[in-house]
Design a protein that fits this description.
Blueprint lengths: L1 H16 L8 H13 L13 H14 L9 H20 L10 H24 L2
Helix pairs in contact: 3-4, 4-5
Length: about 130
């Protein structure tokens, strides 16, 4: 009986540990998010052809700041952040982007903005709930 109670307690602790309580508060996380999004230069500043040093610096900055983004305040935001980082990494690694889905900086920036808006909406919706 003691062994069964110990197993139930271990299971309960494991479930409680997954309830999201280890996620950062929104204000703290937004500071990291603002840091990484501001590391990406304005599209107009890239030049034509894009400046290779600017691309390399942006890629390095995003990769360094990426560690502070996960976990995010919400599980739903984790996938968005992962997608945003992947788009930035692909765009600035190739400089300019040459992928099948994202074949230009215009498309990459369009997708980054879409994801940033989705992150903002998810966090805003979460704050409105009691």
């Amino acid at each position: 009986m003691l062994r069964r109670a110990t197993c139930y307690l271990a299971f309960a602790l494991a479930v409680v540990g997954c309830d999201g309580s280890d996620r950062p508060d929104t204000a703290t996380w937004l500071s990291s998010w603002a840091g990484i999004t501001s590391a990406v230069p304005d599209q107009a500043d890239l030049g034509d052809p894009p400046d290779a040093e600017l691309c390399e610096g942006t890629l390095a900055s995003v990769r360094a700041a990426n560690e502070d983004l996960l976990p995010s305040p919400l599980v739903a935001v984790d996938d968005l952040v992962t997608e945003w980082v992947a788009i930035v990494e692909a765009a600035f690694f190739d400089c300019p982007p040459q992928g099948a889905d994202i074949d230009s900086f215009s498309k990459a920036y369009e997708e980054m903005v879409r994801i940033e808006d989705s992150v903002d909406a998810a966090l805003s919706n979460n704050e409105e709930r009691p």
